Amino acid sequence: MEPISHVVKVxxxxxxxxxxxxxxxxxxxxxxxxxxxxxIPFGAAVAGITYISYLAFCPIAKRHCSKKSSxxxxxxxxxxENAKVVHSFDVEDIGEKAAFCRCWRSKKFPYCDxxxxxxxxxxxxxxxxxCIQRKKN
Length: 137
Ligand code: FES
Fold this sequence. Notes:
Belongs to the CISD protein family. CISD2 subfamily. The protein is mainly alpha-helical. The chain folds into 2 domains: 1-66, no CATH class; 70-136, CDGSH iron-sulfur domain, mitoNEET-type (Ribosomal Protein L9, domain 1, 3-Layer(aba) Sandwich), CATH 3.40.5. It has helices spanning 2-17, 33-57, 59-65, 115-123, and strands spanning 97-100, 130-133. The protein binds FE2/S2 (inorganic) cluster.
């Protein structure tokens, strides 16, 4: 226990007090090459702790990075910040016809922009849009 205590009470404070951290914003521009080099390990440690904290506590990062399943996802990148992608339309607003994307590759999602053709060619898949058309009387 004594080595840990020594690191926390002596080594770390001595290291931190020796860092060339300026007292003002302008001081950063006056640092020399040797000063910047001595800040690299400290900066790397801060960046590492920040990244680990981000992964541990940020719900978006958990959704992107956690491997709940090894199965591939259907949606590669549309509204990944949301827990669920939902669109609602009033039937009267759709007009005479509309094509809705089911491949999740459209840049105009939820509408089809033809991106399913490239996806199908690339993967051998066979997805296409959901076409809705008003019945002609
Ligand atoms: S672009 Fe996705 S189904 Fe057409």
